[in-house]
Write a structure and sequence with these properties.
Two copies of one chain form a homodimer.
Chain A lengths: L9 H26 L7 H11 L4 H8 L3 H13 L3 E5 L7 E5 L1 H21 L5 H16 L10
The structure holds a DNA duplex (30 and 30 nucleotides).
DNA sequence: AGCTTTCAGTTGTATAGTACAACGGTTCTT
DNA sequence: AAGAACCGTTGTACTATACAACTGAAAGCT
């Protein structure tokens, strides 16, 4: 069964969590770049979100990922150039563009997702289903607490 | 007690883990930049490692964080310019420089660490000690699997 | 010893990702 | 209709990063 946990006091646990999440974050980019060199690859994340939402606006992406709208704008420009995303003017509001993955975008996304998942499957292959389930639960809970407040006191 | 976990099948858990870790990683940088704007701040991580190791070489840092040595070199140059790190030539081997935090470095580190920890404490304040402990354990286990292999098949 | 290989770190160059500020259109509110 | 609020783009700048070429130092082999 679960072998996670060491009976450490609260502060120590928080410290470990902080440290390990940070370590993960640092490595994530380099790793991501290796998984799918084909797609510029933060873009991948945006594309995934667009697909999930079945169409969304640039502003939504910015809000969701805490990115500046200029950043999103440029990422989208890249995705469009690659033919992975399509912008459709919204008839209702001429300011907005509704974003949709193209066919090619969906394909790329599916492949990348499969690769990613395979990599994670491999990495987690020795974990019990119970541990996986709990770990997933904790991560959800952690992230659900709201995007911004890793930031602490400004 | 723990409310993590949903009884989901393996694949779904892995998918959630993948997704949530990625979400975290994406947000981490922006958040980090807010926590301590004073220190260029990946540098912070390197500084922390130097301190922990009680002196180490640039190459060690590169290996540990999967960074190119040029990257580390520049980061260190920055830290040195800020007076946070000191390079001491190794008497045994004139190629290497042993890195040590300066007094100022230790101070900055302590402050930053305190801020970070406070931010995490706040974010995790509603978690039970047991959940914290287990979450920490899972993260350790995940990261311990080795730095490189999020990358999957090259 | 002398030559070659290997290792540590720096520097040149290029790229992604990002932010902030300024701007041009568009829509909403008085 | 005027002003405020909003959506997206573009100009500019900076951090983090990689790769490749290079210098200097140590180690290994004849």
């Amino acid at each position: 069964m679960s072998d996670a946990g060491t009976g450490a006091p609260r502060e120590a646990s928080v410290d470990v969590i902080q440290r390990e999440l940070t370590a993960f974050a640092r490595r994530a980019r380099a790793a991501a770049a290796r998984v799918h060199p084909e797609i510029p690859l933060v873009s991948y994340t945006l594309l995934a979100h667009i697909e999930e939402q079945r169409g969304c606006r640039a502003t939504d992406l910015a809000a969701h990922y805490l990115l500046d709208k200029s950043t999103v704008s440029r990422q989208l420009a890249g995705l469009e150039k690659l033919g992975l995303v399509e912008r459709r003017p919204a008839p209702e509001d001429h300011r907005v563009q509704v974003l949709h993955p193209t066919e090619a975008g969906l394909r790329v996304l599916a492949t990348a997702q499969a690769n990613r998942l395979a990599a994670y499957q491999e990495r987690l292959k020795d974990w019990s289903s119970e541990d996986l389930d709990r770990f997933a639960g904790y991560l959800l809970r952690y992230n659900a607490a709201g995007p911004a407040d890793l930031s602490g006191p400004r």
